[in-house]
Design a protein that fits this description.
The complex is a heterodimer of chains A (338) and B (134). Chain A is α+β, with helices and mostly antiparallel strands. Chain A has helices at 3-15, 18-28, 66-71, 87-95, 109-131, 143-158, 164-167, 177-185, 203-213, 219-231, 283-295, and strands at residues 42-51, 54-62, 77-78, 173-175, 189-193, 199-200, 235-238, 246-249, 261-267, 269-270, 277-278, 299-307, 323-330. Chain B has one domain: 3-Layer(aba) Sandwich (Trna Endonuclease, Chain: A, domain 1), CATH 3.40.1350. In chain B, strands 1-2-3-4-5 form a five-stranded mixed sheet, with helices on both faces. Classes of the chains: A alpha+beta (338), B alpha+beta (134).
Chain lengths: 338, 134
Protein backbone atom coordinates (compact mmCIF):
# COMPACT_ATOMS: atom_id res chain seq x y z
CA UNK A 1 0.00 0.00 0.00
CA UNK A 2 1.45 3.44 -0.84
CA UNK A 3 2.79 5.26 2.18
CA UNK A 4 0.66 8.34 1.57
CA UNK A 5 -2.53 6.28 1.43
CA UNK A 6 -1.52 4.42 4.60
CA UNK A 7 -0.87 7.68 6.43
CA UNK A 8 -4.17 9.11 5.22
CA UNK A 9 -6.06 6.05 6.43
CA UNK A 10 -4.34 6.28 9.80
CA UNK A 11 -5.28 9.93 10.12
CA UNK A 12 -8.93 9.21 9.23
CA UNK A 13 -9.05 6.35 11.66
CA UNK A 14 -7.65 8.39 14.55
CA UNK A 15 -10.24 11.08 14.11
CA UNK A 16 -13.12 8.64 14.17
CA UNK A 17 -14.97 8.60 17.44
CA UNK A 18 -15.02 5.60 19.69
CA UNK A 19 -18.71 5.13 18.90
CA UNK A 20 -17.96 4.88 15.21
CA UNK A 21 -15.26 2.32 15.90
CA UNK A 22 -17.72 0.32 17.93
CA UNK A 23 -20.31 0.50 15.15
CA UNK A 24 -17.86 -0.71 12.53
CA UNK A 25 -16.71 -3.45 14.86
CA UNK A 26 -20.25 -4.64 15.52
CA UNK A 27 -20.88 -4.87 11.80
CA UNK A 28 -17.81 -7.01 11.23
CA UNK A 29 -17.97 -8.95 14.48
CA UNK A 30 -18.46 -12.65 14.12
CA UNK A 31 -16.31 -14.64 16.46
CA UNK A 32 -14.58 -14.37 19.80
CA UNK A 33 -11.08 -13.90 18.45
CA UNK A 34 -9.69 -10.67 17.13
CA UNK A 35 -8.99 -9.23 14.56
CA UNK A 36 -12.05 -8.55 12.53
CA UNK A 37 -12.19 -7.19 9.04
CA UNK A 38 -11.94 -3.71 10.51
CA UNK A 39 -8.42 -2.89 11.68
CA UNK A 40 -9.09 -1.94 15.29
CA UNK A 41 -6.00 -1.24 17.31
CA UNK A 42 -6.11 -0.31 20.96
CA UNK A 43 -3.34 1.82 22.40
CA UNK A 44 -1.62 0.62 25.54
CA UNK A 45 0.97 2.38 27.67
CA UNK A 46 3.96 0.28 28.68
CA UNK A 47 5.52 1.34 31.98
CA UNK A 48 9.07 0.10 32.53
CA UNK A 49 11.13 0.13 35.71
CA UNK A 50 14.87 0.32 35.08
CA UNK A 51 17.55 -0.44 37.64
CA UNK A 52 21.15 0.19 36.56
CA UNK A 53 19.84 0.84 33.04
CA UNK A 54 18.28 -2.62 32.80
CA UNK A 55 14.54 -3.28 32.75
CA UNK A 56 13.52 -5.24 35.85
CA UNK A 57 9.75 -4.90 35.71
CA UNK A 58 7.02 -3.60 33.46
CA UNK A 59 3.25 -3.46 33.20
CA UNK A 60 0.78 -2.53 30.48
CA UNK A 61 -2.18 -0.23 31.02
CA UNK A 62 -5.09 0.69 28.79
CA UNK A 63 -7.25 3.73 29.35
CA UNK A 64 -9.22 3.86 26.09
CA UNK A 65 -10.96 1.03 24.28
CA UNK A 66 -11.42 -0.98 27.47
CA UNK A 67 -15.01 -1.84 26.64
CA UNK A 68 -14.09 -3.22 23.26
CA UNK A 69 -11.38 -5.41 24.69
CA UNK A 70 -13.58 -6.72 27.47
CA UNK A 71 -16.73 -7.27 25.47
CA UNK A 72 -15.08 -9.52 22.95
CA UNK A 73 -12.52 -11.77 24.52
CA UNK A 74 -12.47 -10.50 28.13
CA UNK A 75 -8.98 -9.10 27.82
CA UNK A 76 -7.53 -7.16 30.72
CA UNK A 77 -8.49 -6.59 34.33
CA UNK A 78 -9.40 -3.42 36.16
CA UNK A 79 -6.75 -2.80 38.81
CA UNK A 80 -9.42 -2.03 41.44
CA UNK A 81 -11.95 -4.67 40.42
CA UNK A 82 -12.23 -8.44 40.24
CA UNK A 83 -12.37 -8.53 36.45
CA UNK A 84 -13.94 -5.83 34.27
CA UNK A 85 -13.25 -2.29 35.52
CA UNK A 86 -16.27 -1.27 37.60
CA UNK A 87 -14.70 0.73 40.46
CA UNK A 88 -15.64 4.11 39.03
CA UNK A 89 -19.29 3.15 38.56
CA UNK A 90 -19.47 1.63 42.06
CA UNK A 91 -17.79 4.64 43.63
CA UNK A 92 -20.08 7.11 41.90
CA UNK A 93 -23.09 4.99 42.79
CA UNK A 94 -22.16 4.91 46.47
CA UNK A 95 -21.20 8.55 46.79
CA UNK A 96 -24.06 9.97 44.73
CA UNK A 97 -26.19 12.45 46.66
CA UNK A 98 -29.35 10.42 46.57
CA UNK A 99 -31.46 8.60 49.10
CA UNK A 100 -30.91 4.89 49.45
CA UNK A 101 -34.21 4.07 47.71
CA UNK A 102 -33.43 6.17 44.64
CA UNK A 103 -29.88 4.97 44.06
CA UNK A 104 -29.36 2.92 40.91
CA UNK A 105 -29.55 -0.76 41.70
CA UNK A 106 -27.19 -2.01 39.03
CA UNK A 107 -25.27 -4.94 40.40
CA UNK A 108 -21.69 -5.84 39.68
CA UNK A 109 -19.66 -8.97 40.41
CA UNK A 110 -18.18 -7.24 43.46
CA UNK A 111 -21.67 -6.59 44.87
CA UNK A 112 -22.64 -10.24 44.46
CA UNK A 113 -19.46 -11.34 46.19
CA UNK A 114 -20.05 -8.89 49.01
CA UNK A 115 -23.62 -10.13 49.55
CA UNK A 116 -22.48 -13.74 49.54
CA UNK A 117 -19.79 -13.07 52.16
CA UNK A 118 -22.18 -11.17 54.38
CA UNK A 119 -24.71 -14.00 54.16
CA UNK A 120 -22.03 -16.54 55.08
CA UNK A 121 -20.90 -14.39 58.00
CA UNK A 122 -24.47 -14.19 59.18
CA UNK A 123 -24.82 -17.97 59.00
CA UNK A 124 -21.65 -18.39 61.07
CA UNK A 125 -22.83 -15.92 63.68
CA UNK A 126 -26.22 -17.62 63.91
CA UNK A 127 -24.58 -21.02 64.23
CA UNK A 128 -22.29 -19.81 67.01
CA UNK A 129 -25.20 -18.29 68.83
CA UNK A 130 -27.20 -21.51 68.59
CA UNK A 131 -24.33 -23.47 70.06
CA UNK A 132 -24.22 -21.11 73.03
CA UNK A 133 -28.01 -21.33 73.40
CA UNK A 134 -28.61 -17.62 73.13
CA UNK A 135 -31.36 -15.65 71.43
CA UNK A 136 -30.87 -15.33 67.69
CA UNK A 137 -31.35 -12.07 65.82
CA UNK A 138 -31.43 -11.35 62.91
CA UNK A 139 -31.98 -14.09 60.31
CA UNK A 140 -29.84 -14.68 57.25
CA UNK A 141 -30.31 -12.19 54.46
CA UNK A 142 -32.36 -9.77 56.49
CA UNK A 143 -32.48 -6.26 55.11
CA UNK A 144 -31.47 -4.73 58.44
CA UNK A 145 -28.08 -6.49 58.56
CA UNK A 146 -27.28 -5.85 54.91
CA UNK A 147 -28.31 -2.20 54.98
CA UNK A 148 -25.99 -1.66 57.96
CA UNK A 149 -23.11 -2.96 55.86
CA UNK A 150 -24.17 -0.63 53.01
CA UNK A 151 -24.07 2.35 55.36
CA UNK A 152 -20.62 1.37 56.60
CA UNK A 153 -19.37 0.98 53.04
CA UNK A 154 -20.75 4.39 52.09
CA UNK A 155 -18.93 6.00 55.01
CA UNK A 156 -15.69 4.31 54.01
CA UNK A 157 -16.09 5.39 50.39
CA UNK A 158 -16.64 8.99 51.42
CA UNK A 159 -13.44 8.87 53.46
CA UNK A 160 -11.34 7.93 50.43
CA UNK A 161 -11.03 11.59 49.33
CA UNK A 162 -11.09 10.97 45.61
CA UNK A 163 -11.83 14.18 43.71
CA UNK A 164 -14.03 14.32 40.63
CA UNK A 165 -10.97 14.88 38.45
CA UNK A 166 -9.29 11.79 39.83
CA UNK A 167 -12.19 9.35 39.59
CA UNK A 168 -11.81 8.84 35.84
CA UNK A 169 -8.11 8.11 36.17
CA UNK A 170 -8.27 5.77 39.18
CA UNK A 171 -8.77 2.48 37.35
CA UNK A 172 -6.92 1.68 34.16
CA UNK A 173 -7.18 -1.82 32.72
CA UNK A 174 -4.02 -3.88 33.09
CA UNK A 175 -3.10 -6.52 30.54
CA UNK A 176 -1.12 -9.56 31.52
CA UNK A 177 2.05 -10.11 29.46
CA UNK A 178 0.44 -12.98 27.57
CA UNK A 179 -2.68 -10.98 26.74
CA UNK A 180 -0.56 -8.12 25.48
CA UNK A 181 1.58 -10.42 23.34
CA UNK A 182 -1.46 -12.17 21.92
CA UNK A 183 -3.20 -8.92 21.00
CA UNK A 184 0.02 -7.51 19.60
CA UNK A 185 0.58 -10.64 17.53
CA UNK A 186 -2.84 -10.42 15.89
CA UNK A 187 -2.44 -6.71 15.27
CA UNK A 188 -4.93 -5.33 17.80
CA UNK A 189 -2.55 -3.67 20.23
CA UNK A 190 -0.25 -0.71 19.87
CA UNK A 191 2.22 -0.78 22.77
CA UNK A 192 3.66 2.65 23.54
CA UNK A 193 6.74 2.98 25.72
CA UNK A 194 5.94 5.78 28.17
CA UNK A 195 9.56 6.29 29.19
CA UNK A 196 10.62 6.95 25.58
CA UNK A 197 8.04 9.50 24.48
CA UNK A 198 5.42 6.91 23.60
CA UNK A 199 7.61 5.11 21.13
CA UNK A 200 5.65 2.27 19.54
CA UNK A 201 7.19 -1.09 20.40
CA UNK A 202 7.39 -3.77 17.76
CA UNK A 203 6.02 -7.19 18.61
CA UNK A 204 9.54 -8.59 18.89
CA UNK A 205 10.62 -5.73 21.15
CA UNK A 206 7.58 -6.20 23.35
CA UNK A 207 8.30 -9.92 23.69
CA UNK A 208 11.93 -9.25 24.52
CA UNK A 209 10.97 -6.73 27.19
CA UNK A 210 8.33 -8.95 28.81
CA UNK A 211 10.63 -11.98 28.71
CA UNK A 212 13.43 -10.01 30.40
CA UNK A 213 11.13 -8.78 33.16
CA UNK A 214 9.64 -12.21 33.83
CA UNK A 215 11.22 -13.82 36.88
CA UNK A 216 11.03 -17.49 35.94
CA UNK A 217 12.35 -19.32 32.92
CA UNK A 218 9.07 -20.71 31.59
CA UNK A 219 7.77 -17.54 29.98
CA UNK A 220 7.83 -18.91 26.44
CA UNK A 221 6.10 -22.13 27.52
CA UNK A 222 3.27 -20.24 29.21
CA UNK A 223 2.93 -17.94 26.21
CA UNK A 224 2.63 -20.94 23.91
CA UNK A 225 -0.01 -22.50 26.17
CA UNK A 226 -1.90 -19.22 26.41
CA UNK A 227 -1.93 -18.82 22.64
CA UNK A 228 -3.03 -22.45 22.25
CA UNK A 229 -6.10 -22.09 24.45
CA UNK A 230 -7.02 -18.67 23.09
CA UNK A 231 -6.86 -20.04 19.57
CA UNK A 232 -9.30 -22.73 20.64
CA UNK A 233 -11.78 -20.08 21.74
CA UNK A 234 -11.34 -20.19 25.51
CA UNK A 235 -11.11 -17.05 27.60
CA UNK A 236 -7.83 -17.49 29.44
CA UNK A 237 -7.34 -15.72 32.78
CA UNK A 238 -4.87 -15.85 35.65
CA UNK A 239 -5.07 -18.92 37.88
CA UNK A 240 -3.04 -17.51 40.76
CA UNK A 241 -5.83 -17.80 43.33
CA UNK A 242 -6.18 -21.54 42.72
CA UNK A 243 -2.50 -22.42 42.50
CA UNK A 244 -2.49 -22.89 38.74
CA UNK A 245 -1.19 -20.91 35.79
CA UNK A 246 -4.43 -20.28 33.92
CA UNK A 247 -8.18 -20.62 34.27
CA UNK A 248 -10.31 -21.38 31.22
CA UNK A 249 -13.70 -19.73 30.83
CA UNK A 250 -16.26 -20.20 28.10
CA UNK A 251 -17.58 -17.42 25.89
CA UNK A 252 -18.68 -14.52 28.02
CA UNK A 253 -15.79 -14.92 30.43
CA UNK A 254 -15.89 -14.53 34.22
CA UNK A 255 -19.03 -12.39 34.13
CA UNK A 256 -21.14 -15.22 32.72
CA UNK A 257 -19.96 -18.33 34.55
CA UNK A 258 -17.29 -19.86 36.71
CA UNK A 259 -14.28 -21.37 34.99
CA UNK A 260 -14.42 -25.05 34.16
CA UNK A 261 -10.75 -25.86 33.91
CA UNK A 262 -7.62 -24.99 35.79
CA UNK A 263 -4.45 -25.28 33.73
CA UNK A 264 -0.95 -25.96 34.95
CA UNK A 265 1.81 -25.53 32.38
CA UNK A 266 4.87 -27.74 32.61
CA UNK A 267 7.88 -28.33 30.43
CA UNK A 268 8.04 -31.68 28.74
CA UNK A 269 11.61 -32.88 29.21
CA UNK A 270 12.86 -35.16 26.49
CA UNK A 271 15.51 -37.71 27.41
CA UNK A 272 18.30 -37.96 24.91
CA UNK A 273 18.55 -41.74 24.81
CA UNK A 274 14.86 -42.64 24.66
CA UNK A 275 11.75 -41.34 23.05
CA UNK A 276 9.74 -41.42 26.25
CA UNK A 277 9.34 -38.13 28.04
CA UNK A 278 10.29 -37.62 31.65
CA UNK A 279 7.39 -36.25 33.60
CA UNK A 280 8.89 -33.95 36.21
CA UNK A 281 6.02 -33.83 38.69
CA UNK A 282 5.52 -36.13 41.64
CA UNK A 283 2.12 -37.72 42.01
CA UNK A 284 1.76 -36.17 45.44
CA UNK A 285 2.12 -32.70 43.97
CA UNK A 286 -0.34 -33.54 41.19
CA UNK A 287 -2.92 -34.85 43.61
CA UNK A 288 -2.56 -31.77 45.77
CA UNK A 289 -3.31 -29.58 42.77
CA UNK A 290 -6.21 -31.78 41.78
CA UNK A 291 -7.69 -31.62 45.27
CA UNK A 292 -7.62 -27.82 45.26
CA UNK A 293 -9.35 -27.74 41.89
CA UNK A 294 -11.98 -30.26 42.95
CA UNK A 295 -12.86 -28.16 45.98
CA UNK A 296 -13.72 -25.24 43.69
CA UNK A 297 -15.45 -27.42 41.09
CA UNK A 298 -12.83 -27.20 38.43
CA UNK A 299 -11.03 -29.91 36.50
CA UNK A 300 -7.27 -29.92 36.41
CA UNK A 301 -5.48 -29.88 33.08
CA UNK A 302 -1.76 -30.48 32.95
CA UNK A 303 -0.46 -28.85 29.79
CA UNK A 304 2.96 -30.15 28.79
CA UNK A 305 4.82 -27.91 26.39
CA UNK A 306 7.82 -28.97 24.40
CA UNK A 307 9.90 -26.73 22.23
CA UNK A 308 12.06 -27.92 19.39
CA UNK A 309 13.48 -24.48 18.80
CA UNK A 310 17.15 -23.98 19.41
CA UNK A 311 17.52 -20.37 20.52
CA UNK A 312 20.75 -18.57 21.02
CA UNK A 313 19.06 -15.94 23.16
CA UNK A 314 16.02 -16.66 25.28
CA UNK A 315 14.53 -13.21 24.79
CA UNK A 316 14.07 -13.65 21.04
CA UNK A 317 10.48 -14.14 19.93
CA UNK A 318 9.98 -17.86 19.29
CA UNK A 319 8.10 -19.38 16.39
CA UNK A 320 4.98 -20.75 18.07
CA UNK A 321 4.53 -23.43 15.45
CA UNK A 322 7.66 -25.11 16.81
CA UNK A 323 5.98 -25.83 20.14
CA UNK A 324 4.37 -29.16 20.84
CA UNK A 325 1.57 -29.34 23.40
CA UNK A 326 0.21 -32.40 25.15
CA UNK A 327 -2.60 -31.91 27.61
CA UNK A 328 -4.07 -34.31 30.13
CA UNK A 329 -7.21 -33.99 32.19
CA UNK A 330 -6.92 -35.23 35.78
CA UNK A 331 -9.99 -36.11 37.80
CA UNK A 332 -10.10 -38.03 41.02
CA UNK A 333 -12.07 -41.25 40.77
CA UNK A 334 -13.52 -43.36 43.55
CA UNK A 335 -14.45 -46.91 42.40
CA UNK A 336 -16.94 -47.31 45.27
CA UNK A 337 -18.87 -44.19 44.46
CA UNK A 338 -21.67 -44.66 41.93
CA UNK B 1 2.77 5.02 37.18
CA UNK B 2 3.11 8.78 37.39
CA UNK B 3 -0.10 9.05 35.36
CA UNK B 4 -2.09 7.61 38.27
CA UNK B 5 -3.58 10.30 40.52
CA UNK B 6 -2.70 8.46 43.74
CA UNK B 7 0.88 7.44 42.96
CA UNK B 8 2.25 10.43 44.87
CA UNK B 9 1.08 8.76 48.10
CA UNK B 10 3.73 6.04 47.75
CA UNK B 11 6.26 7.75 45.48
CA UNK B 12 8.77 8.31 48.30
CA UNK B 13 8.87 4.63 49.17
CA UNK B 14 8.94 3.60 45.50
CA UNK B 15 11.96 5.82 44.96
CA UNK B 16 13.81 3.86 47.67
CA UNK B 17 12.85 0.44 46.27
CA UNK B 18 12.07 0.99 42.56
CA UNK B 19 12.18 -2.70 41.62
CA UNK B 20 9.11 -3.33 43.81
CA UNK B 21 7.08 -0.35 42.57
CA UNK B 22 4.38 -2.39 40.83
CA UNK B 23 3.48 -4.81 43.64
CA UNK B 24 3.78 -2.11 46.28
CA UNK B 25 1.51 0.35 44.49
CA UNK B 26 -1.00 -2.35 43.54
CA UNK B 27 -1.26 -3.60 47.12
CA UNK B 28 -1.53 -0.04 48.44
CA UNK B 29 -4.39 0.71 46.05
CA UNK B 30 -6.13 -2.55 46.88
CA UNK B 31 -5.86 -2.12 50.65
CA UNK B 32 -6.90 1.53 50.65
CA UNK B 33 -9.43 1.87 47.81
CA UNK B 34 -10.88 -1.62 47.48
CA UNK B 35 -10.64 -3.23 50.93
CA UNK B 36 -10.99 0.27 52.45
CA UNK B 37 -8.95 -0.34 55.58
CA UNK B 38 -7.96 2.60 57.77
CA UNK B 39 -4.67 4.54 58.10
CA UNK B 40 -2.99 2.89 55.12
CA UNK B 41 0.68 3.79 54.80
CA UNK B 42 3.78 2.47 53.07
CA UNK B 43 7.11 1.87 54.80
CA UNK B 44 10.47 0.34 54.00
CA UNK B 45 11.70 -2.31 56.44
CA UNK B 46 15.09 -1.47 57.90
CA UNK B 47 18.01 -3.65 57.02
CA UNK B 48 16.40 -5.67 54.24
CA UNK B 49 15.14 -2.82 52.05
CA UNK B 50 11.73 -4.35 51.60
CA UNK B 51 8.57 -2.25 51.25
CA UNK B 52 5.42 -3.04 53.21
CA UNK B 53 1.96 -1.55 53.50
CA UNK B 54 0.42 -1.13 56.94
CA UNK B 55 -3.22 -0.66 57.78
CA UNK B 56 -5.59 -0.84 60.68
CA UNK B 57 -8.67 -3.01 60.71
CA UNK B 58 -11.99 -2.04 62.27
CA UNK B 59 -11.05 -3.95 65.42
CA UNK B 60 -7.86 -1.94 65.86
CA UNK B 61 -5.51 -4.70 64.77
CA UNK B 62 -2.42 -3.57 62.89
CA UNK B 63 -2.08 -5.47 59.63
CA UNK B 64 1.14 -5.51 57.67
CA UNK B 65 1.17 -6.54 54.03
CA UNK B 66 4.36 -7.58 52.24
CA UNK B 67 3.98 -7.24 48.44
CA UNK B 68 5.54 -10.06 46.47
CA UNK B 69 5.72 -10.94 42.80
CA UNK B 70 3.76 -14.07 41.90
CA UNK B 71 6.65 -15.50 39.93
CA UNK B 72 9.50 -14.76 42.31
CA UNK B 73 11.20 -17.56 44.19
CA UNK B 74 10.56 -17.70 47.90
CA UNK B 75 13.36 -17.99 50.43
CA UNK B 76 12.56 -19.09 53.97
CA UNK B 77 15.28 -16.85 55.43
CA UNK B 78 13.83 -13.90 53.56
CA UNK B 79 10.33 -14.66 54.82
CA UNK B 80 11.68 -14.91 58.37
CA UNK B 81 13.42 -11.56 58.01
CA UNK B 82 10.23 -9.95 56.67
CA UNK B 83 8.23 -11.39 59.55
CA UNK B 84 10.69 -10.22 62.19
CA UNK B 85 11.16 -6.73 60.77
CA UNK B 86 7.41 -6.32 60.30
CA UNK B 87 6.75 -7.09 63.94
CA UNK B 88 9.43 -4.57 64.93
CA UNK B 89 7.79 -2.01 62.65
CA UNK B 90 4.43 -2.56 64.29
CA UNK B 91 6.02 -1.78 67.67
CA UNK B 92 7.35 1.51 66.35
CA UNK B 93 3.96 2.36 64.83
CA UNK B 94 1.82 1.56 67.84
CA UNK B 95 4.40 2.47 70.45
CA UNK B 96 3.83 -0.75 72.35
CA UNK B 97 4.76 -4.35 71.91
CA UNK B 98 1.48 -6.22 71.74
CA UNK B 99 2.03 -8.99 69.24
CA UNK B 100 -1.47 -10.32 69.63
CA UNK B 101 -2.77 -7.23 67.88
CA UNK B 102 -0.44 -7.52 64.87
CA UNK B 103 -0.79 -9.73 61.85
CA UNK B 104 1.60 -10.11 58.93
CA UNK B 105 0.40 -11.08 55.46
CA UNK B 106 2.01 -11.84 52.14
CA UNK B 107 0.35 -9.99 49.26
CA UNK B 108 1.08 -11.93 46.09
CA UNK B 109 0.63 -9.73 43.02
CA UNK B 110 0.13 -11.33 39.63
CA UNK B 111 1.01 -9.77 36.30
CA UNK B 112 -2.61 -8.79 35.61
CA UNK B 113 -2.93 -6.92 38.97
CA UNK B 114 -4.66 -9.78 40.81
CA UNK B 115 -3.69 -9.71 44.50
CA UNK B 116 -3.94 -12.76 46.75
CA UNK B 117 -3.31 -12.52 50.48
CA UNK B 118 -1.81 -15.13 52.78
CA UNK B 119 -1.25 -14.84 56.51
CA UNK B 120 2.09 -15.94 57.87
CA UNK B 121 3.10 -16.67 61.42
CA UNK B 122 6.13 -18.07 63.16
CA UNK B 123 4.56 -21.45 63.83
CA UNK B 124 1.81 -23.34 65.59
CA UNK B 125 1.18 -23.83 69.27
CA UNK B 126 1.38 -27.05 71.17
CA UNK B 127 -1.89 -29.00 70.98
CA UNK B 128 -4.28 -28.29 73.82
CA UNK B 129 -4.29 -30.91 76.57
CA UNK B 130 -7.06 -33.45 76.20
CA UNK B 131 -9.15 -33.78 79.37
CA UNK B 132 -10.46 -37.29 79.72
CA UNK B 133 -13.97 -37.66 81.13
CA UNK B 134 -13.88 -39.51 84.45
Amino acid sequence: MPAILHQTMQRVWRTATLQMQRLWYLIAKENLLWPTLVPIRVKASVHIINVNNKPVDCWIWIREGQELLWKDGCFGKGILSRSSPTWQQRYQRETAEQSAENKPQERYIEDITQRRREARRQIRENTNEKQHEEDITPVVGSNNAISAQDTMRLEKMNDLNVSQNEVDMMEPVQLSPFEALFLSDIGCLEALDVSHENKCLLHTELYSLLYTCHKSDDFDLKYAAYYYYRAKGWVVRSGLKFGSDFLLYGKGGPARSHSQYSVVVRKLEQQQSEDTADLTESWQHMFGLSRVCTQVRKSLIICYVNSYVLKHQDSILPDLYQFEIQEYLFKRFNPNRK
Amino acid sequence: MDAHPKFHEVSDVCRQVPERTRPLFQVYLDIKYVQMLKTVKAFVLDGIRFPVVTAQSDSGEIQIFAPMFADENTDIDYINAILEKSLNLSTSISGKCNREKVSVHLAIVDSDSTVTYYSIDSGIHFPAAIILAS
